[in-house]
Amino acid sequence: MINQVILVSFLVLTKGVGLFEQYYPLADEIANAMSLQQKIGQTLQIDITSFNDEQGNTHYEQISQHFLGSILVGGNGCPDGRGNIIVSENCFAATNANWRDVAQRSLKQKVIVNVPGHGETQINLLLGTDAVHGNQHSVGAVLFPHNIGLAASHNVENYIKAAYWTKKSILDCGFNFAFAPTVAVSHNPKWGRFYETQGADPKFIKEIGRAYIKELQDDDGQKINGVLGSTKHYFGDGATYNGYDEGNCRVENFEVFYNNNVQGYIGALEANTGTIMVSYSAINELPMSISDLINVDLKQKYKFDGFIISDYNAAIKVAFQGLPTTHTKMSIEDAYTKSFNSGMDMQMVDGAVGWYEEVMNTIIGQGRISTERLNDAVKRILAVKLAMNLINVPETLAKKYNYTQEKKEEKVQKEQLSSQNDNDVEHNDAEYYDALRSAKESLVLLKNKQNILPINKSKITNVILLGERFWSFKGEFKRIFQDFDNIGAQNGGWTIRWQGYNGNDYWQNDLKVSSKASSILDALKSRFSSANIYYVKYSDPTNLFLINEQRSNFRNQIINNQDQFNRENTLIINTLAENPYAEFMGDIDCEYCKNEDKYGCIYNNWLNQYLPDEQPTTLEINLGDFEKQIINIIRQKDVDIPVVSVLFSGRPMIITNPLQVSSAFVAAWWPGTAGGEAVVQALFGEYLFKAQGKLNTLPVPWMRNMQQISNYPFYQNDVPQIEDPLFEEGFGLETRTQNIQ
């Protein structure tokens, strides 16, 4: 069905010889001189922790032993400060300097090819890392808002700045390949990757894809001077039915589905994206990892001249997982054969290099993957590397193809000089202010009763901070978090590690200075005396007895000071927050998780211990009983004392209860390290909500209840829409200066 529909005439990019295509002849000659094992190795990207022994020592020599084309840092990989990459709860050694040490050790491993008549050609590595909202694997980094927040700014310049600083930081770490940008269209907030999506406007997403790749890769028409991008996840990953991660897109009208979900890739292709990463998801139960759309759409229609890369262990999932993607399973040999022949050029896998090599040797030996197809994949990978100066070409061979390359020593010197220049105060300030601006422009004001915002700071003598969450795992209490002082909760998933962190452990002392990270409490302390800020000061947030005792003491303090609180001098800031999560761990209400055998349920809270044992079934978020008590006590003598609620989340939530209690309500998304400062500036009028030119407006409709996103989306005759949402896409209130004059 897809093969027939795809032949419908769509826009085809028209251009001359592509950025990477110009290197095909040279890449072909190098590939023709390679052994079969060298070719297989170039089509493989391995998680670097696969090279660790039982003592945690990383054996980098395995990179060259297996002729690898690329390695990646997995979601939980961190340097240990001794030159190794480990999977650990402790990532405090994940500084740029230690990442650079890992990169340098890796880049010493080369693939040597003797090209007849020309001599030794050295092929260097692609070093891949996630870059969902900045260089998030590096401690002390400035992190931008997640995509859904940037989409609320509707400001392409914020994406360009995010790409620019991400590029600078990744290069400083010695890496050269970023898994970004995601260009998925936002559909169902039940999806655990909703915060990675870019809103509901395909035209804007096309513009984002083009702008981000252009800045990240920084190509001049001949070479990539920045970081190789990976536009993802091709395609429709944001449109799975009921929002299941790795799920299935239900599609009757393929043309409507295609036109709505492919625009970000068109924009990225126009900017010469070097790689495209394929989605785990399926269209009508055909996994994208084995779909002929990769060949027919990207390589034939759009003349894509870079290479296609899989997501992590994608072929293994096609072979063995089944649901929630499809009811079909197959042998691993069939999965790799179908994936490779569909157009997948590089496989991202977590280890067992020898096993992969054995499978590839078997299916190539059986003629199931042709020599022509293998050579095409290798050619594409080498062409991208040639555009990045990652292949040391012998002088005679370079002259034959008129290939110019920057000497490796010159490139290293330039990068070192750039890194030194980038460590000055002016650089750090510029990065911080770009992130801060992005965070401010991403905030959306959903309620502002009687124009209570902006608050006149000069009149406020009492600020009461509320918003706490208990963390338990497997029935055991762990600690309490206060979300008005929780930088981890402002950053969500894909922060330091895959699932993110609650709390401030990674934003203290020098790390806080370098990132300039701020919670709401931090930002308030720079404006008010500590005596004017009321919140429970826990002596031990892990001791439940002391927590209850100190809560009782705080309640009594509020009661004793009740007479001094009024609507003119008092502000209650109530924070609400989702736990951090990533991918399927953020999914909500998956039918397969309700079955006794759990087949098709990939939720497992051992992967994210902030989350409950069983997958949640609702996006509803409410005030806690303690918060309600304190608000009621403070408002006993003056019901108009303002309560401003701030929601830190990766998606729209069901907010019926807190919206009713609040005088004003701010959707802050996951605003990044500068989020606390951004929120406080907006509350006190140092930044005004614009709601003009689409700044500070919703990039998606905001549902009223869970029923509105049940059995959704389903592509039939039109783009599916949430009917009668609580707030329409584009909604956002503005503030004016009269309140603070």
TrEMBL record:
Reaction(s) the record says it catalyses: Hydrolysis of terminal, non-reducing beta-D-glucosyl residues with release of beta-D-glucose
One MF annotation (Gene Ontology) recorded for this entry: beta-glucosidase activity
InterPro entries referenced in this protein's UniProt entry, alphabetically: Cellulose_Degrad_GH3, Glyco_hydro_3_C, Glyco_hydro_3_N
EC numbers for this chain: 3.2.1.21
One GO process term, biological-process aspect: glucan catabolic process
UniProt keyword terms in alphabetical order: Glycosidase, Hydrolase, Signal
Cross-referenced Pfam families: Glyco_hydro_3, Glyco_hydro_3_C
Domain (Glycoside hydrolase family 3 N-terminal) ranges: 36-383
Cleavable signal peptide: 1-16
Top-level taxon of the source organism: Eukaryota
Domain Glycoside hydrolase family 3 C-terminal: 443-734
Family: Belongs to the glycosyl hydrolase 3 family.
Protein name: beta-glucosidase
Origin species: Paramecium sonneborni
Organism placement in taxonomy: Eukaryota, Sar, Alveolata, Ciliophora, Intramacronucleata
